[in-house]
Write a structure and sequence with these properties.
- About 50% of the residues lie in helices and about 25% in strands.
- Helix 3 packs antiparallel against helix 5.
- The longest helix is centred in the middle third of the chain and has 72 residues.
- The strands form 2 sheets. Strands 1-8-12-10-9-13 form a 6-stranded antiparallel barrel. Strands 5-4-2-7 form a 4-stranded antiparallel beta sheet.
- A hairpin with an 8-residue loop joins strand 11 and strand 12.
- It is α+β, with helices and mostly antiparallel strands.
- It has a domain of about 160 residues.
Length: about 375
C-alpha cells in the first residue's frame, strides 16, 4: 500500500517555489557579500595614530624686560581678565621714578607760586578797593557839586528873568562905555549875571572832573578783573601749569606702559606650556605661551599615501580614545602634497589630515594624547 502511494506521488507534477522566497534568498546573498566585503576592507584598513590638538591664541610680551614671575601654571583655566605673568622693565622703572619726582617738584613749585600770588593779589585787591572807594567818593562829591551849581545857575537865571524896573542900561556891555553913574539895580544885575556865568563855568569843570572819575573807576575795575591773570603771569604760574600738564601726560604714558607689564590672557581657554622662565630677559613681541580653546579641538594625523584615496575632505572616520571610548570625526583638511616624515621608519610618503569632531562630543583627554583613526 505504501509503495503504491509513493509511486503516485512521484507521478504528480512539482509545484513552483513562492516568489518571496527567491527575493529573500537574493537579499541574504547580497547582505552576506557586502558584509564579507566590509570585513575584508576593515581587515585591510590599518588604523593610523594622530594626536589631539586645539586651536590656540598666542600671548606675546608687551614690554622688553625681565620676567618677574608667572601667575599661572600650565593646564589652568584662564580668561581675558586673568594675569599670566609680570615683566619688569628696569629702564621703565627708573623713568617712572624720575618722572614722578619731576611732577612732584613742579607741583611744589606751583603751590609756592600760587601762595605768593594769592598774598600779592589780596594786597593789591585791598589797595584797589581803597582807590576805587576814594574814586567813587570823589565822583559823588563832584556830582553833588554839579547839582549845586546847576541849582545856583538855575536860581540866577530865574532871578534875571523876573520882571524888574527898566534901567537906563540896555546891555551889560554898555556898563564899560557909559560915562553915567551906575544905578544900584544895575550893579545887582551885573553881579547876578557874573554869578550865573561863574556857576556855568564851575558846572562844566565839575562835569569834566566827574567824567575823569568815571574813567578812572572803569580803569580800576578792569585792572581788578585782570589782576589775577597778570599776577599769575608775573609769578610764572601759567608756565608752571603748562609744564606740569606736559609732565603729567608723560607720567601717565609711562604708567600705561607699566600696566602693560602685567600680561593678561587675551582669550578664554587652557594655559599651555611656558616658553620662558622666571628671571629670564625677554624682548617685546616674543611669545610667552599659548591659550588653548576647549571648544576648538582637532586631531592631526598622517595617512600613508597609498591610503590617500580613502580619505577626502568630509570623510567620516572612527576614533579610538585611550580610555576605551569610541567617537566619530570628519576630515576637515587634507594636504595635497605627500611628504616623507622623518619619524616614519618605512620612509613612505604620507598625507597630513585634520580631523574635527562629528556627532557626540569627544571625551576630555589631555592635549597631545595619541588617538587611533580608522576609516569607515
Amino acid at each position: 500500500m505504501s509503495s503504491t502511494s509513493e509511486n503516485r506521488s512521484k507521478d504528480l507534477p512539482k509545484l513552483p517555489a513562492p516568489p518571496y522566497r527567491s527575493i529573500l534568498l537574493i537579499m541574504l546573498a547580497f547582505g552576506l557579500g557586502y558584509t564579507i566585503t566590509r570585513v575584508l576592507e576593515l581587515s585591510h584598513s590599518t588604523p593610523v595614530t594622530g594626536h589631539l590638538y586645539s586651536k590656540s591664541t598666542a600671548v606675546y610680551a608687551t614690554e622688553t624686560g625681565v620676567i618677574q614671575k608667572f601667575l599661572t601654571r600650565t593646564g589652568e583655566l584662564a580668561d581675558e581678565t586673568s594675569s599670566l605673568c609680570v615683566i619688569q622693565n628696569i629702564t621703565l622703572t627708573k623713568q617712572l621714578k624720575e618722572q614722578t619726582k619731576r611732577v612732584l617738584k613742579l607741583k611744589q613749585n606751583l603751590k609756592v607760586a600760587s601762595a605768593k600770588s594769592e598774598i600779592e593779589l589780596a594786597w593789591r585787591n585791598k589797595s584797589l578797593e581803597n582807590e576805587i572807594l576814594q574814586t567813587r567818593l570823589n565822583a559823588a562829591n563832584y556830582l553833588q557839586e554839579k547839582y549845586n551849581q546847576q541849582i545856583e545857575k538855575y536860581a540866577w537865571k530865574k532871578y534875571l528873568n523876573r520882571p524888574r524896573p527898566v534901567s537906563h542900561l540896555k546891555k551889560p556891555d554898555e556898563i564899560f562905555r557909559t560915562d553915567n553913574g551906575i544905578h544900584d539895580l544895575d550893579r545887582f544885575l551885573i553881579r547876578a549875571q557874573l554869578e550865573q556865568e561863574s556857576a556855568q563855568n564851575a558846572e562844566e569843570v565839575t562835569t569834566v572832573q566827574l567824567r575823569l572819575c568815571e574813567k578812572r573807576l572803569d580803569s580800576l575795575k578792569k585792572l581788578k578783573k585782570e589782576l589775577p591773570q597778570k599776577l599769575s603771569d608775573s609769578f610764572g604760574i601759567t608756565t608752571i601749569q603748562n609744564n606740569l600738564s606736559n609732565e603729567e601726560k608723560k607720567l601717565a604714558a609711562l604708567k600705561q606702559r607699566e600696566i602693560k607689564q602685567d600680561i593678561k590672557a587675551n582669550a578664554y581657554g587652557i594655559v599651555g606650556p611656558m616658553y620662558h622662565s622666571s628671571g629670564e630677559t625677554i624682548n617685546k613681541g616674543e611669545k610667552l605661551l599659548d591659550i588653548y580653546h576647549m571648544d576648538h579641538l582637532f586631531i592631526k594625523a598622517s595617512f600613508p599615501s597609498l591610503m590617500a584615496t580613502k580619505v577626502q575632505n568630509g570623510t567620516e572616520v572612527r576614533l579610538y580614545f585611550p580610555n576605551g571610548e569610541k567617537r566619530k570625526g570628519r576630515i576637515k583638511h587634507k594636504s595635497f602634497i605627500a611628504a616623507k616624515d622623518a619619524s616614519n621608519s618605512s620612509g613612505a610618503p604620507e598625507v597630513e589630515i585634520i580631523v574635527e569632531p562629528f556627532g557626540k562630543n569627544w571625551p576630555g583627554v589631555a592635549f597631545g594624547t595619541a588617538i587611533q583613526i580608522q576609516t569607515l
